[in-house]
Write a structure and sequence with these properties.
Layout lengths: L2 E5 L2 E3 L5 E8 L7 E7 L6 E6 L5 E3 L7 E2 L2 E2 L4 E6 L8 E8 L13 E2 L3 E5 L1
Amino acid sequence: HVQLVESGGGSAQPGKSLRLSCATSGFTFSSNCVAWFRQAPGKEREFIANIDGGGRTTYADSVKGRFTIPKDNAKSMLYLQMNNLKPEDTAMYYCAADEEYGGLLLAYEYNYWGQGTQVTVS
């Protein structure tokens, strides 16, 4: 079965950086779409970034130029490098995956989810 486990969250000051990790297993990591979403209390789950089976990336406008989504196929690891953090980045961050090759943008399109890691910027 598919498992995704996030780590690396915590507290950071505005302008600083954090790097989140997502360890995956149970599916063909290198050829599937994987992504990061975030959700703040009382708000809808928000798309952050994805990388498709061909290595193409897509970023939300809110994080473009600040966040990147590195991927290590050999280790089946997904990362989210977050630079120049802002208070509005505070949220629970989730990694997600789907067996679809192409990039997916909507939360309901992803079949597999981790349990999240909290990021607090203040």
